[in-house]
């Protein structure tokens, strides 16, 4: 698994546009897997069951990735909705993202070019003010130390941006901590130094 850091959507974001009397609502959210994306798409279909179309696209993985993608024109002419939406998502610099554009037809046909512009533009508009956060590849590391080292361990965890998920105190103190995968070598090295090489193997989850 890579240790890539990249922006991902923070929460659900929606914008609305009216183009030649048709309403276009673009809803964007984070999707960490194709299953997450499909669950979100189904929720939009439930929210807007009377829409003329609920077209969608998603990119699951780092920005610009092409291995786990999906799109649908949902009844619009082939290539006029899902493809332009996906193109925008693949070039926006944001990962793990799904977008659904809900259209309520207003009586005026937009034509093929107009539809491509409307659907791609709806996604672009939503991305302008999309709140994001940094995605960090994390790992859960479990290790044991003697009671004499607890204070030093707590200080070490602060410097490594580690969060204590669970801790128990028996013969020794056992810590389960969540930290960026990139900090794992430093954790190992510091604990080995602290215990003078007596550290039991760190378990990862």
Automatic annotation (TrEMBL):
Pfam families reported in the protein's UniProt record: DUF1949, Impact_N
GO cellular component: cytoplasm
Domain UPF0029: 144-197
Domain named Impact N-terminal: residues: 21-127
Domain of life: Bacteria
PROSITE patterns registered for this protein in UniProt: UPF0029
InterPro entries (UniProt xref): EFG_III/V, Impact, Impact_N, Impact_N_sf, Impact_YigZ-like, Ribosomal_Su5_D2-typ_SF, UPF0029_Impact_C, UPF0029_Impact_CS
Gene3D superfamilies: 3.30.70.240, Impact, N-terminal domain
GO biological process terms on file: regulation of translational initiation
NCBIfam families in the record: IMPACT_YIGZ (TIGR00257)
Family from the record: Belongs to the IMPACT family.
PANTHER family: IMPACT FAMILY MEMBER YIGZ (PTHR16301:SF20), IMPACT-RELATED (PTHR16301)
Protein name: GTP-binding protein
Organism: Gemmatimonas phototrophica
Taxon lineage: Bacteria, Pseudomonadati, Gemmatimonadota, Gemmatimonadia, Gemmatimonadales
């Amino acid at each position: 698994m890579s240790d890539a850091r990249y922006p991902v959507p923070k929460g659900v974001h929606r914008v609305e546009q009216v183009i030649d009397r048709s309403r276009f609502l673009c809803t964007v959210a984070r999707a960490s897997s194709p299953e997450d994306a499909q669950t979100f798409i189904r929720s939009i279909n439930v929210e807007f069951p009377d829409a003329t179309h609920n077209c969608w696209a998603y990119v699951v993985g780092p920005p610009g990735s092409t291995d786990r993608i999906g799109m649908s024109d949902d009844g619009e002419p082939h290539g006029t909705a899902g493809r332009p939406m996906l193109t925008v998502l693949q070039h926006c610099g944001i990962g793990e993202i799904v977008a659904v554009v809900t259209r309520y037809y207003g009586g005026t046909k937009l034509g093929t070019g107009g539809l491509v512009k409307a659907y791609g533009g709806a996604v672009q508009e939503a991305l302008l003010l999309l709140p994001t956060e940094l995605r960090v590849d994390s790992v859960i590391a479990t290790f044991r130390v003697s009671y004499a080292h607890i204070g030093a361990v707590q200080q070490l965890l602060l410097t490594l941006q580690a969060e204590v998920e669970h801790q128990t105190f028996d013969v020794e103190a056992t810590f389960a901590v969540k930290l960026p995968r990139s900090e794992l070598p430093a954790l190992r090295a510091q604990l080995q130094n602290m215990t003078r090489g007596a550290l039991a193997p760190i378990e990862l989850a």
